[in-house]
Amino acid sequence: MTALIVVAIFVALIVIHELGHFFVAKWLGVRVEEFGIGYPPRALSFGRWGGTEYTINWLPLGGFVRLYGDEETKEHGKGSFQDASRPVQAAILVAGVAMNAVLAWGLLAWSLHLGVPTIVGEPQHGEQVQLFIADVVPGSPAAAAGISAGDELLSIADKNGKLVAPLTPTAVSAFVAAHPGQELTVTYLHTKATTTALIRPANGVVAGSEHKPALGVALALVATRALPWPEAIEKSVPLTLGYFKATFDGVWQLISGAFKLNAPIDQVVGPVGLVSVIGEAAQNGFGNVIKLAGFISVNLAIINLIPIPALDGGRLAILGVEAVLRRPAPRLAVQIINTIGVACLMLLMLVVTYQDIARLLA
Q: Which pairing describes strands 193-199 and 116-120: parallel, antiparallel, or unpaired?
């Protein structure tokens, strides 16, 4: 089921990307020969309307738009992509990226409206919350007990069985401070397994609080809160921009690292790895899956802008070169560059898939 969700997300994001090319091409007078869902061989044709044939294809991995006079056919005449001005060509190429950006914003707003796990200060009345370990001080009692960042704190009890209630950062801090030198029974969830440890709070664990006993953990209270549409739309704007910045920084590290032969390829997740990522996201509700889809849409937008042949960014780079030279780029040179670009992308996908499978086996 998770694999089907991954395929559905990728198909939806790529088809909407192609719809950007489709609508702008139609609007600017470039003829669209075919709009296909999936990749050839063709499975079904719905017929031709407005000069465009609409098809379903056997490889359900995305979609495509075939323009009259595109890079492969170089056909000329009315409605030819090749005969369109360079600003028109650029607008058609950029439209796919723009659609992914707008889609990401919409998906993130939808996810906030549905409700996603969010760090909160205090729980609302009757609200279900989870308390997570955000950080662990090295050498602290918590670190010695094997607690690590990302674990979920389930309960803390003293020797008489008295529990911390409610389980919030403020209550935990007060409870620990009230039991100096006493062993506390801490129950937490670590890698999906419930673990119990006896921990004695110590002084001097937290800088600036040398005389206050502490376990040595930073806590984060998490709740799933649904926002009304106006607030969700507003808060999704900085969230989308933050995702764009984070993705751009990650891609830049990958590209710059490739030239230094130390690219962090182990941090890249491909389609196979996304099965486990989306599976974990689904455990936190449908809103989290939609949020992840928005993040993937941001990634598609950034990746498509990379000036690599076979991507929109590569074709935009060629348009820029042609604008400087004031003549079309040599067709043979473009074909050679495209072949090299496709080969590099295939090699990257093989490496990323290998990393995904290795992580799954581990």
A: unpaired
Residue 362 pLDDT level (bands cut at 50, 70, 90): low
Return the CA Rg of the chain.
26
Are the C-beta atoms of residues 264 and 319 closer than 8 Å to each other? no
- Whether 17 and 30 have beta carbons less than 8 Å apart is answered as no
SS3 308: coil
DSSP 247-295: HHHHHHHHHHHHHTT---GGG---HHHHHHHHHHHHTT-HHHHHHHHHH
Global confidence as pTM: 0.86
> In angstroms, rounded to a whole number, what is the distance separating the alpha carbons of residues 141 and 214?
8
Q: How far apart are CA 308 and CA 310, in angstroms?
A: 6
**H or E element, residue 204:** none
Question: Which of 23-27, 109-113, 117-121 shows the lowest per-residue confidence on average (mean pLDDT)?
Answer: 117-121
* Residue pLDDT, tens place only, 175-223: 999 999 899 999 999 988 999 999 999 998 887 777 889 999 999 999 9
Read off the amino acid at residue 221.
Answer: L
Which residues, in sequence order, are CB contacts of 342 under 8 Å at separation 6+?
309, 310
Of the candidates 268, 261, 232, 263, the one whose C-alpha atom is nearest the C-alpha of residue 247 is 268
Count of H-run helices and E-run strands, the chain: 9, 8
Instruction: Take residue 40 and report the two structure tokens written for it.
Output: 């050839």
**Rounded-to-integer distance, Cα 256 and Cα 270, Å:** 20
Collapsing DSSP states into helix, strand and coil, what is residue 105?
helix
**Maximum separation of any 2 CA atoms in the chain, in Å:** 87
Closest CA to 104 of 249, 302, 331, 328: 302
Contacts of 248 (CB under 8 A, 6+ apart): 302
Q: Is 83 exposed, middle or buried (0-12, 13-18, 19+ CB in 10 A)?
A: middle
